[in-house]
Structures are given as C-alpha cells and as structure tokens.
C-alpha cells in the first residue's frame, strides 16, 4: 500500500513539473484530437489539422535548434536506457533534450541519459526491418524496442531480437538483412 501511495505521489509530481508539450509547428497548445505524426522514434502533436502535414513534409526544419524556441515538441516512444517502449503513464522519470521528452522506467536510466543525450540525438539513420528476423516493422509504435549501433537505430520486432542485438550487435548485423534509411515521418497509429 505504501508503494502505491509513493507511486501516485511521484506521478503527480511528474505531471506538475513537466512543461507541456506543444504543437511542433505553431508552438501553441497541442490538441489531442488532431492526428499525430511519428518521426525518428518520437511522436509529435499539433494544434490543428494543417500542422501535421507541414511537419511531415520537413520534420528536420521543425527540429532545428533555432526553431525549437526552448519548447518540447515531441515524446520519444522508447526508454533510452532499455530500448523498450514506454509511455508517460508508466514512466518514473523524464528528461527533455533537443525538443524531445524522454521517459525512463527508473531514475537510474535518467541519470545515465545525461551522458548519452548528445549521442542519441546524432543518430541520423534507421532500419524498420528487424536486423535479427528480417521482419518489416510497419511503424515505430509497432517496434518491440531499438538499439543504436554505429549511428544507426535498429528497431526490432520482438524482445528476443532486441536481446540478441544488444548481446552481439556486430555479429547480428554481419548477417542482417536490415534496410538502412533516413528516418521517415508517418502518421501515428490511432490508439483505440
């Protein structure tokens, strides 16, 4: 019971301390009913229907440091410490960096993130083909996890593949059929 109370207290603090995530284009309040866009493993929200198409056409333009205005415009879909999917509701800690909010399963992950944040932001290539199974992953939200290797973010189809990739990345990638591309902006799947 005590841990439940502590968890609720932490969740309340978490929500109060976080700056709101704003529209990636207009930097005004995001409207939850407007379609979202996923790009490079992060989800972006918008204030109105026209902003999503503007962002999709040129996400790098809106993520440029001078365009951010100090705002947080997106949420990373994965815990950078574990590579596993995470939501704000399940997070125990968070950090904003480069316009993106990162969530963590525990405070230790956030502490480790401080030294890894710049490297995480420098990943400019990705593969939505699981490097272990060869399975195509339809979108970022469908990935079971990711691992960054030599500047490429590899998304995996399942936890077993993520474990194999993390255990022996060089060996796994030597046999991989992964297709490496630049990140793609895509419509975020609608949550039921």
Large-scale geometry: globular
> How many domains?
2
Structural class: alpha+beta
**Helix segment count?**
7
Strand content: 15-25%
Query: Averaging pLDDT over every residue, what do you get?
Result: 88
| Helical content class | 25-40%
Compute the separation of the termini in Å.
Answer: 31 Å
Radius of gyration: 17 Å
Strand order of the largest sheet: 4-5-3-2-1-9
Compute the number of strand runs.
Answer: 9
Reported for the largest beta sheet, the result is:
6 strands, mixed
Residue stretches low in confidence (pLDDT < 50, at least 5 long) are 1-16
Task: Spell out the key features of this protein.
disordered N terminus; 9 strands; 192 residues; 6-stranded mixed sheet; 3-stranded mixed sheet; alpha+beta
Account of the 3D structure:
It is a single chain. This protein has 192 residues and is of the alpha+beta class. The protein has two domains: 1-122, no CATH class; 123-187, no CATH class. The protein contains seven helices and nine strands, in the order H-E-E-H-H-H-E-E-E-H-E-E-E-H-H-E. Strands 4-5-3-2-1-9 form a six-stranded mixed beta sheet. It has a three-stranded mixed beta sheet with strand order 6-8-7. A hairpin with a 2-residue loop joins strand 4 (93-97) and strand 5 (100-104). The longest helix is centred in the N-terminal third of the chain and has 16 residues, at 2-17. The protein starts with a helix and ends in a 5-residue tail after the last strand.
């Amino acid at each position: 019971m005590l841990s439940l109370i502590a968890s609720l207290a932490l969740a309340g603090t978490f929500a109060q301390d976080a700056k709101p995530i704003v529209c990636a284009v207009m930097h005004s309040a995001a409207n939850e009913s407007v379609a979202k866009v996923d790009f490079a493993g992060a989800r972006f929200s918008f204030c109105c229907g026209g902003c999503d198409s503007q962002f999709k056409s040129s996400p790098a333009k809106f993520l440029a440091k001078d365009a951010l205005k100090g705002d947080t415009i997106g949420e990373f879909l994965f815990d950078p410490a574990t590579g596993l999917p995470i939501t704000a509701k399940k997070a125990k800690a968070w950090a904003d960096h480069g316009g993106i909010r990162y969530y963590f399963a525990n405070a230790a992950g956030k502490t480790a993130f401080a030294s890894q944040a710049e490297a995480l932001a420098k990943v400019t290539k990705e593969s939505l083909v699981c490097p272990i199974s060869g399975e195509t992953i339809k979108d970022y939200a469908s990935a079971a996890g990711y691992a960054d290797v030599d500047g490429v973010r590899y998304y995996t189809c399942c936890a077993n593949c993520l474990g194999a990739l993390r255990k022996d990345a060089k060996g796994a990638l030597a046999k991989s059929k992964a297709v490496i591309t630049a990140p793609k902006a895509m419509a975020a799947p609608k949550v039921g």
